[in-house]
């Protein structure tokens, strides 16, 4: 049991953090708690720190909306935090859709779906195209285009204010991830993940691989939601600098030989690695 | 070698066009959804909301106005509602806006989609400046217009006497009673919806609809002569009206008939 807990220490802590954050938002609406009010598009932390989604703000800018100071400051705060600690921390530690996508992936592994047989494979770079399309559509329709369909927004607002039929979106993502493409939504399409990845490209906190300890078990490859970022595993020691890494810590958990650790990697070192 | 290149080229082209195909499919579905949600809708926005088009582009969908509403009047739309997703609205028949003097919903808005300055006069909040909609009365089903005694909307109205006033009229059916007809004054009506909420008929006979739908506009081409100054708008207008029609011949009719050469030219086409 304790081995199970240890091997899922990040997984479990992330679930706890995700649910605590959801609870705090829910409580703000239902009981008037003052921890964090609003939702993932825009919030107020402790009643005075504005937080806004930089991607939503950029869409609003393209939509021709006048960006209020609160939103601008909020977006800057989030942007700074993301660029220092890594934007995709959001994906693994905050985003409610992550629970859906990782559950689908876990079930997929349990059911032993062969990649090739059930795959509708497409490139992970689609998300960057989706960012471009989002901004284009925002410009054409004068609307924050992704915010209108975002499953993240739908899920998060759903928990706080009520779902409507919105939960069907989450079912769709679950089925898509389970049967068509592993991590199909979060790892391939979601433009918010892509945008956060771009912001956090040179963040200071990185997962670092140590080749000396690696026994080539490939356990990390089985669980990593963004396997392409592990291209150095078993070959050479290096920090994971690829933007895709969501810092979920799964590779640390499953590695029996501690060939991974999380540490601060300075910008100079990161540039040297390239 | 040549064949191998050819194969690569085929695959590349096919993959590219696949991507374009999926992309077009997605973009078309997405675009149609976006343009749908820009359509004029029949719901009421919180006080101080910008015009619908600006509102949906400026609102970040954070829901803080909904959270701050002390009477739980405001709702945040879900994908099943006929409202741009994630935006605040209220349904007057269910709950009317209570017109809080401190306007917590508009004050909570971080984006200015709910525009606080539009509800501020001399640095003081004035909720009565809100224009969420305009009440309209169906005089065929309104109890008071039928001659029954009902002043529910008049009593529910927070600006009673101004936004809704009662017009006394002889009841010609009985010839001995009075009709106390409620009348809405658009100069004062804020569109809070308390009247629609209070109306006792099965389907409300007084309804609040968004201003964009109920409000008429006389246009600039009518002059309201009895309003002081309105006639002065004529001064700047010019009489030069260019009409697109065939110009009249400048010669007199007699000259035209006697112009034999000209007629011959016309007939023979200048030969």
General description of the model:
The complex is a heterodimer of chains A (274) and B (271). Chain A is mainly alpha-helical. Chain A has 2 domains: 2-198, no CATH class; 204-273, Alpha-Beta Plaits (2-Layer Sandwich), CATH 3.30.70. Helices cover 57% and strands 9% of the residues of chain A. In chain A, strands 1-2-3 form a 3-stranded antiparallel β-sheet. In chain A, strands 5-4-6 form a 3-stranded antiparallel β-sheet, with no helix packed on it. In chain A, a hairpin with a 2-residue loop joins strand 1 and strand 2 (42-45). In chain A, helix 2 (9-30) crosses helix 10 and helix 8 (126-141) crosses helix 13. The longest helix of chain A is centred in the N-terminal third of the chain and has 22 residues, at 9-30. The model of chain A has no long low-confidence stretch (mean pLDDT 87). Chain B starts with a helix and ends with a helix. Chain B has 10 helices and 8 strands. Chain B has 3 domains: 1-36; 52-129, Alpha-Beta Plaits (2-Layer Sandwich); 134-214, Alpha-Beta Plaits. In chain B, a hairpin with a 7-residue loop joins strand 6 (164-170) and strand 7 (178-184). By secondary structure, chain B is of the alpha+beta class. Chain B has helices at residues 2-36, 52-58, 64-68, 104-108, 143-146, 152-156, 194-198, 211-214, 253-258, 260-268; strands at residues 75-76, 88-89, 120-121, 124-125, 134-137, 164-170, 178-184, 206-209. Chain B is flat. At the A-B interface, strand 1, strand 2, helix 3, helix 4 and helix 8 of A face helix 1, helix 2, helix 3 and strand 1 of B.
């Amino acid at each position: 049991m304790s081995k199970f807990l240890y091997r899922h220490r990040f997984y479990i802590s992330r679930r706890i953090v995700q649910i605590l954050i959801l609870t705090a938002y829910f409580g703000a609406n239902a009981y008037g708690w003052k921890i964090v009010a609003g939702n993932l598009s825009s919030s107020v932390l402790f009643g005075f720190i504005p937080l806004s989604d930089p991607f939503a703000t950029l869409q609003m800018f393209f939509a021709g909306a006048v960006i209020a100071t609160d939103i601008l400051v909020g977006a800057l705060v989030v942007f700074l935090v993301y660029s220092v600690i890594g934007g995709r921390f959001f994906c693994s530690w905050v985003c409610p859709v992550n629970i859906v996508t990782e559950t689908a992936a876990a079930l997929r592994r349990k059911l032993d779906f062969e990649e090739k047989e059930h795959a509708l494979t497409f490139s992970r770079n689609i998300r960057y195209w989706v960012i471009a399309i989002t901004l284009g559509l925002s410009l054409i329709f004068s609307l924050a285009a992704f915010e209108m369909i975002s499953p993240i927004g739908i899920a998060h607002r759903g928990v706080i204010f009520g779902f409507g039929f919105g939960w069907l979106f989450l079912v769709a993502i679950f089925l898509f991830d389970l049967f068509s493409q592993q991590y199909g939504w979060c790892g391939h399409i979601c433009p918010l993940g892509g945008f956060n990845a771009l912001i956090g490209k040179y963040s200071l906190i990185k997962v670092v691989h140590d080749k000396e300890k690696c026994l080539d078990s490939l356990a990390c490859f089985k669980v990593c939601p963004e396997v392409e970022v592990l291209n150095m595993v078993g070959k050479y020691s290096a920090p994971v600098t690829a933007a895709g890494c969501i810092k979920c810590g799964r590779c640390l958990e499953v590695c029996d030989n501690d060939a991974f650790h999380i540490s601060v990697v300075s910008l100079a070192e990161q540039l040297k690695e390239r | 070698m040549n064949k191998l290149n050819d194969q690569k080229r085929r695959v590349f082209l096919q993959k590219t066009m696949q991507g374009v195909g999926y992309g077009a499919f997605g973009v078309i579905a997405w675009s149609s959804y976006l343009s749908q949600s820009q359509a004029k809708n029949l719901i009421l926005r919180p006080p101080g909301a910008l015009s619908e088009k600006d509102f949906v582009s400026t609102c970040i969908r954070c829901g803080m106005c909904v959270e701050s509403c002390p009477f739980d009047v405001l709702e945040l739309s879900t994908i099943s509602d006929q409202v741009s997703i994630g935006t605040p609205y209220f349904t007057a028949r269910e709950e009317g806006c209570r017109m809080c003097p401190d306007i917590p919903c508009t004050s909570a808005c971080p984006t200015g989609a709910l525009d606080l300055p539009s509800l501020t006069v001399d640095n003081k909040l004035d909720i009565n400046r809100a224009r969420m909609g305009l009440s309209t009365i169906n005089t065929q089903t309104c109890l008071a217009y039928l001659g029954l005694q009902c002043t529910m909307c008049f009593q529910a109205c927070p600006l009673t006497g101004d936004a809704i006033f009662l017009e006394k009229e002889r009841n010609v059916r009985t010839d001995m009673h009075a009709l106390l007809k409620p009348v809405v004054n658009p100069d004062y009506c804020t569109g809070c919806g308390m009247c629609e909420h209070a109306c006792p008929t099965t389907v409300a006979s007084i309804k609040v609809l968004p201003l964009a739908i109920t409000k008429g506009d006389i246009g600039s081409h009518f002059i309201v002569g009895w309003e002081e100054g309105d006639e002065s708008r004529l001064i700047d207008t010019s009489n030069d009206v260019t009409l697109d029609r065939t110009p009249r011949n400048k010669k007199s009719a007699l000259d035209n008939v006697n112009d034999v050469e000209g007629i011959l030219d016309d007939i023979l086409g200048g030969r």
